[in-house]
C-alpha cells in the first residue's frame, strides 16, 4: 500500500514541534511523497499560533521541492456543540482542516454521549474535512454513530500513527481504532492515514497504522490518501464546490 500524502503534520509554529515548513517539505520530498499537509494547532492550543497566521497562509507557495503542500489547521473541538476555534470563513480559505479533541481545550463532560455529540456536531460543519485521532480512550466514543455520521457528512476519519505508537499518550487506541475500522468497512466510510508528525523524521512513517490495516484486511479503496488526486477529491471542501 502506497501513501502519497501525509495528511497531518506540525511545524515550529505549533509550539511543541521542531522543524520549519521548508524542512518538513524537504523531508517529505526525500521520503518520496507527492504531497504534504501541514496542519498547525489552532489558537486555543497552549503555545500555538494566532488567527493572523492562518489568514496569511495565502502568501506561501503550494509547491516546494516538487511536493504539493496543503496548508491548513488542526482545529480544537471545544465542547459538545462542536464549537471550533477559528472562524468558519478563515477555515474555508485554507487547503485542509482537521478537527480534534485535545485535553487542554475540551470543556465539558467526557461521557460517551457528550463526546459523540461533539464529533457529530463538528462533522456537520462543511469547513471540517477530517476528524483527527478519534481513538483516545480518555474521550469515549460511540463508533457506530461516529462512522455513520462521517459517511453521511463526507467527513474523513483519521487513523493516527502517533496514537498507536508505544510512546503514545492516548489510551486504548489500538482497540478503539479496530472498532472504528470495523464500522468503516460496514458503512464504506473513508479513512486517511496521518502520522501527526511533530518532527521531520516522523513524516510518512505509518508502521503502527499500517500493521492494523493489514491485520484487518482493510480495503484500500476506503483509504483516501493512497493517491494525491483521490485525496484532493475526498476533501469535503472540494466535494461541495
Ligand atoms: Zn501537537
Ligand atoms: Zn491532535
- Total of DSSP H or I helical runs spanning 4+ residues: 10
Bound ions, cofactors and other small molecules, one mention each: zinc ion
How many E-type strands?
A: 8
Going by helix content, strand content and strand pairing, the class is alpha/beta
Instruction: Please state the average pLDDT score.
Output: 97
Q: In what range is the share of β-strand residues?
A: 15-25%
CATH topology: TIM Barrel
The major pleated sheet works out as:
8 strands, mixed
Give the name of the CATH architecture. Answer: Alpha-Beta Barrel
CATH class: Alpha Beta
- Share of helical residues: 25-40%
Distance between the termini: 29 Å
Order of helix and strand elements from N to C terminus: EHEHEEHEHEHEHHEHHH
Tally of discrete structural domains: 1
Spans of at least 5 consecutive residues with low confidence: none
The CATH homologous superfamily is named: Metal-dependent hydrolases
Which radius of gyration do the C-alpha atoms yield?
Answer: 16 Å
Label the overall shape: globular
Write up this protein.
The protein has 241 residues and is an alpha/beta fold. The protein has one domain: Metal-dependent hydrolases (TIM Barrel). It has ten helices and eight strands. Strand 4, helix 3 and strand 5 form a beta-alpha-beta unit. The longest helix is centred in the C-terminal third of the chain and has 15 residues. The two termini are 29 Å apart. The model has no long low-confidence stretch (mean pLDDT 97). It binds zinc ion (2 copies).
Amino acid at each position: 500500500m502506497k501513501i502519497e500524502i501525509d495528511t497531518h503534520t506540525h511545524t515550529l509554529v505549533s509550539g511543541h514541534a521542531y522543524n520549519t515548513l521548508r524542512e518538513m517539505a524537504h523531508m517529505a520530498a526525500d521520503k518520496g511523497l507527492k504531497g504534504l499537509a501541514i496542519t498547525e494547532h489552532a489558537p486555543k492550543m497552549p503555545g500555538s499560533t494566532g488567527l493572523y497566521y492562518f489568514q496569511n497562509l495565502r502568501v506561501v507557495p503550494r509547491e516546494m521541492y516538487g511536493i504539493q503542500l496543503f496548508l491548513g489547521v488542526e482545529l480544537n473541538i471545544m465542547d459538545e456543540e462542536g464549537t471550533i476555534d477559528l472562524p468558519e470563513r478563515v477555515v474555508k480559505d485554507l487547503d485542509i482542516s482537521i478537527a480534534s479533541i485535545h485535553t487542554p481545550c475540551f470543556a465539558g463532560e467526557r461521557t460517551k454521549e457528550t463526546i459523540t455529540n461533539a464529533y457529530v456536531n463538528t462533522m456537520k460543519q462543511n469547513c471540517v474535512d477530517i476528524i483527527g485521532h478519534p481513538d483516545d480512550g480518555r474521550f469515549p466514543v460511540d463508533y457506530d454513530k461516529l462512522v455513520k455520521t462521517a459517511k453521511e457528512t463526507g467527513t474523513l476519519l483519521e487513523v493516527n500513527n502517533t496514537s498507536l505508537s508505544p510512546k503514545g499518550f492516548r489510551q486504548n487506541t489500538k482497540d478503539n481504532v479496530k472498532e472504528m475500522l470495523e464500522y468503516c468497512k460496514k458503512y464504506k466510510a473513508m479513512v486517511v492515514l496521518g502520522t501527526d508528525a511533530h518532527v521531520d523524521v516522523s513524516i510518512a512513517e505509518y508502521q503502527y497504522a499500517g500493521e492494523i490495516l493489514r491485520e484487518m484486511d482493510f480495503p484500500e479503496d476506503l483509504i483516501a490518501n493512497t493517491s494525491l488526486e483521490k485525496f484532493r477529491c475526498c476533501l469535503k471542501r472540494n466535494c461541495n464546490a
